[in-house]
Amino acid sequence: MLQVTGVSLQYGSKKLFEDVNLKFTKGNCYGIIGANGAGKSTFLKVLSGEIEPQKGFVSLDKNERMSVLQQNQNMYDNETVLRTVMMGYKRLVEVMDEKDALYANPDFSEEDGIRAAELESEFAEMNGYDAEFQAAQLLNALEIGEEWHYALMSDLDAKQKVRVLLAQALFGDPDVLLLDEPTNNLDIKTVRWLENYLMDFENTIIIVSHNRHFLNKVCTNICDVDFGKINMYVGNYDFWYQTSQLLARQQKEQNKKAEQRAKELQEFIARFAANASKSRQATSRKKELEKLTINDFKPSLRKYPYIDFKFEKDIGNDILMVEGLSKEGYFADLSFTVQHDEKIGIVSDKSTTLTMLYDILMGKEQPDKGTIRWGKTISVSYFPQNNNEYFQNCDLNLVEWLSQYSNDHYEEYLRGWLGRMLFSGEEALKKAKVLSGGEKVRCMLAKMMLEGSNFLIFDEPTNHLDLESITALNNGLSNYKGCMLLTSHDQELMNTVCNRIIEINDKKTYDRQVTYDEYVDETHA
Question: pTM, whole model, 2 decimals?
Fold first, then answer.
């Protein structure tokens, strides 16, 4: 069991969390969630011992082993892939190396023989004789083929290294497993394998992830980092979200009733305090007022933007028809027609294929052949995966930047749209060229809402967004009444928004009116 007792941590005046007391027990999977900057990854580092808290301590039961998903992709560049995986079980590798060094000694002594026997016994207890086989199994499951097992880590690309480090964390059945964003750079097939692996894992798992579908699949508990505290809830992410929203509404309603009652009591006291016949009642009400509790809410780090796409122009019978579209190196003879009420998820093994398709649909690139016909009533807004052209070297502040895409240039009107996307007060006067990745995405969404188009195209809109913004975007796209083409690695977004899936690689290989989960079940079983 991993136990956190009275842990507090702050940097300068910024308090991340205070007096945290939690128990992480065998057979459970804990998702760590919170706004960007709340301290999720920092808390994992406290659990692993990489960071020492100012107060309190973390304890792990004796003889239990912790394994951590490493974030430094280059730290094992001089090691082979197979050995890198086994290095996840530090003691096993130490025993293996000492044992091999003894057997390689030409002056092998009786004392060496006794030590070697001790090491062999310990090695067997750790299941060391099957270690290479188990490491190879993990690598194969994560699509690192045998041709790479004895290559140096430096020979692998970044996506392969991520998979090897994940295999390292899983290796040797650790008692406590710490995973920070384990689904990054994994395809849907590998994510599904990891989900199944973790659901069958019998020890303790603690995960930080922005992947809501993944958290819903594997988590038995959610730990929410907010208000300078870490509170644990039983259930997956969706259950936590529904519970937290309900509790917040209930608390606001209780406060509203308490404030109303306090106002009534204050008015009565002010009116009758000097009235002898009413003095007893006034005194009674003073006591009631003193006992009345109105909760003083601490400001939450969690902020939800308001995302709601509306359009005024009705959609006619003709929407979008693509016939025989080809682009060398990307796709050939692509044809599809968009019908009313369709929100189509477009998927591919290569993200560049889909970006090229969207750029052709928007007229930014030209096809080698084929035709595209948009309906006369259709207005289109496009969210590109790379939005640098909108912000690079742009010396405008955000009010000025958004004004470029609005028919109404009144500052208060534009500030209202920016406020929806969490740019309030002085934030609205930031220069567009200095925005973070997540801020740029929120500006692009504000632009698209202002445009009021009845056809939306999204190419990976959740990149750089926190869970709160992803949830708000999900709600906005689910409620949208127009047509849509959507590509996203966020499985929950794809599954809850899309009602048709088209898969495009060199050619169109799949096109059905199904949910994303149904598509995955059919094609990745």
Answer: 0.82
